[in-house]
């Protein structure tokens, strides 16, 4: 069977179907769900999806349901080891408690990135990234 | 069930579409195509920061600007059932008309599948294999 499926990025996803997967999106979001389907663009169908946020050694999750993710927004797709997922040394807390911390983390990171790109632009001769300024 | 077939099956169902820039659109799917371009009706648009809202009667979204779509959880089951029904219907329809003459279908010898023809070695018929 191996030889029938060419080694392409989407070709290697067959083994992941019906498995619990972690998906990281380009905007930094982390989704966990069961991969039900995909296509040549690595568009994904995720069932029973939860979104997780992390802050230091705690995490929180919220139910999101059935997702159809456009492939170009995916940074990473990884299988979750069901035997080990409960052994991670993290504590789960309520989403409402953690959300504010998470938003602060994102804001802090954005500030750091802005400063970094400003330095690269002014002192190191780099061009500005995302110059169109339209967020795409 | 390919992702885009699922989208097709979601016509007239409520869904949430998030764009790459973070804006979200809540509405019912009117139509879609293979580029993932979609039209929605009775839409609630939300700004990326989640602080501004608009109501639109109908809107068109270019597929390339989409980050993801959230569709009803029940959709997958509905589609699976629909496929099963279609298969059953197809099977009984064929079974009624075609009979005798070596039963087309699984297992029976068929033309064009690389079975013994002209005495050559029987090679696996399906797809491009490893040659031998």
From TrEMBL, chain A:
<dbReference type="GO" id="GO:0006397">
    <property type="term" value="P:mRNA processing"/>
</dbReference>
<dbReference type="GO" id="GO:1990726">
    <property type="term" value="C:Lsm1-7-Pat1 complex"/>
</dbReference>
<keyword id="KW-0694">RNA-binding</keyword>
<dbReference type="InterPro" id="IPR047575">
    <property type="entry name" value="Sm"/>
</dbReference>
<protein>
    <recommendedName>
        <fullName>U6 snRNA-associated Sm-like protein LSm1</fullName>
    </recommendedName>
</protein>
<keyword id="KW-0507">mRNA processing</keyword>
<comment type="similarity">
    <text>Belongs to the snRNP Sm proteins family.</text>
</comment>
<feature type="domain" description="Sm">
    <location>
        <begin position="8"/>
        <end position="83"/>
    </location>
</feature>
<dbReference type="GO" id="GO:0000290">
    <property type="term" value="P:deadenylation-dependent decapping of nuclear-transcribed mRNA"/>
</dbReference>
<dbReference type="InterPro" id="IPR044642">
    <property type="entry name" value="PTHR15588"/>
</dbReference>
<dbReference type="InterPro" id="IPR034104">
    <property type="entry name" value="Lsm1"/>
</dbReference>
<dbReference type="GO" id="GO:0000932">
    <property type="term" value="C:P-body"/>
</dbReference>
<dbReference type="InterPro" id="IPR001163">
    <property type="entry name" value="Sm_dom_euk/arc"/>
</dbReference>
<comment type="function">
    <text>Component of the cytoplasmic LSM1-LSM7 complex which is involved in mRNA degradation.</text>
</comment>
<keyword id="KW-0687">Ribonucleoprotein</keyword>
<dbReference type="GO" id="GO:1990904">
    <property type="term" value="C:ribonucleoprotein complex"/>
</dbReference>
<dbReference type="Pfam" id="PF01423">
    <property type="entry name" value="LSM"/>
</dbReference>
<comment type="subunit">
    <text>Component of the heptameric LSM1-LSM7 complex that forms a seven-membered ring structure with a donut shape.</text>
</comment>
<dbReference type="GO" id="GO:0003729">
    <property type="term" value="F:mRNA binding"/>
</dbReference>
<keyword id="KW-0963">Cytoplasm</keyword>
<dbReference type="InterPro" id="IPR010920">
    <property type="entry name" value="LSM_dom_sf"/>
</dbReference>
TrEMBL record, chain B:
<keyword id="KW-0539">Nucleus</keyword>
<dbReference type="GO" id="GO:0097525">
    <property type="term" value="C:spliceosomal snRNP complex"/>
</dbReference>
<dbReference type="InterPro" id="IPR047575">
    <property type="entry name" value="Sm"/>
</dbReference>
<dbReference type="GO" id="GO:0000398">
    <property type="term" value="P:mRNA splicing, via spliceosome"/>
</dbReference>
<keyword id="KW-0747">Spliceosome</keyword>
<keyword id="KW-0508">mRNA splicing</keyword>
<keyword id="KW-0694">RNA-binding</keyword>
<protein>
    <recommendedName>
        <fullName>LSM complex subunit LSM4</fullName>
    </recommendedName>
</protein>
<dbReference type="GO" id="GO:0003723">
    <property type="term" value="F:RNA binding"/>
</dbReference>
<keyword id="KW-0687">Ribonucleoprotein</keyword>
<feature type="compositionally biased region" description="Basic and acidic residues">
    <location>
        <begin position="82"/>
        <end position="91"/>
    </location>
</feature>
<dbReference type="InterPro" id="IPR010920">
    <property type="entry name" value="LSM_dom_sf"/>
</dbReference>
<feature type="region of interest" description="Disordered">
    <location>
        <begin position="82"/>
        <end position="132"/>
    </location>
</feature>
<comment type="subunit">
    <text>LSm subunits form a heteromer with a doughnut shape.</text>
</comment>
<comment type="function">
    <text>Binds specifically to the 3'-terminal U-tract of U6 snRNA.</text>
</comment>
<dbReference type="GO" id="GO:0000956">
    <property type="term" value="P:nuclear-transcribed mRNA catabolic process"/>
</dbReference>
<feature type="compositionally biased region" description="Gly residues">
    <location>
        <begin position="115"/>
        <end position="124"/>
    </location>
</feature>
<comment type="similarity">
    <text>Belongs to the snRNP Sm proteins family.</text>
</comment>
<keyword id="KW-0507">mRNA processing</keyword>
<dbReference type="GO" id="GO:0005681">
    <property type="term" value="C:spliceosomal complex"/>
</dbReference>
<dbReference type="InterPro" id="IPR001163">
    <property type="entry name" value="Sm_dom_euk/arc"/>
</dbReference>
<feature type="domain" description="Sm">
    <location>
        <begin position="2"/>
        <end position="75"/>
    </location>
</feature>
């Amino acid at each position: 069977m191996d030889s029938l499926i060419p080694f392409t990025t989407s070709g290697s996803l067959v083994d992941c179907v019906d498995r619990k997967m972690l998906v990281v999106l380009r905007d930094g979001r982390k989704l966990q769900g069961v991969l039900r389907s995909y296509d040549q663009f690595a568009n994904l169908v995720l069932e029973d999806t939860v979104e997780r946020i992390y802050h230091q050694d705690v995490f929180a999750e919220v139910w999101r349901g059935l997702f159809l993710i456009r492939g170009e927004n995916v940074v990473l797709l990884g299988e979750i080891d069901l035997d080990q997922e409960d052994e991670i040394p993290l504590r789960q807390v309520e989403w409402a408690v953690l959300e504010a911390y998470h938003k602060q983390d994102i804001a802090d990171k954005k500030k750091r990135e802005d400063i970094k790109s400003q330095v690269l632009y002014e002192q190191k001769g780099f061009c500005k990234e995302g110059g169109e300024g339209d967020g795409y | 069930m390919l992702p885009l077939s699922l989208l097709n099956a979601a016509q007239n169902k409520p869904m949430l579409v998030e764009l790459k820039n973070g804006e979200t659109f809540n509405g019912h799917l009117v139509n879609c195509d293979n580029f993932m371009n979609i039209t929605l009706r009775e839409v609630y648009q939300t700004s990326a920061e989640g602080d501004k809202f608009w109501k639109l009667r109908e809107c068109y979204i270019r597929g390339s600007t989409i980050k993801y779509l959230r569709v009803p959880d029940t959709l997958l089951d509905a589609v699976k059932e629909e496929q099963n029904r279609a298969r059953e219907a197809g099977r009984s329809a064929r079974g009624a008309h075609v009979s005798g003459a070596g039963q087309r279908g699984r297992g029976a010898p068929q033309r064009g599948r690389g079975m013994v023809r002209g005495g050559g070695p029987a090679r696996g018929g399906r797809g491009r294999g490893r040659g031998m």
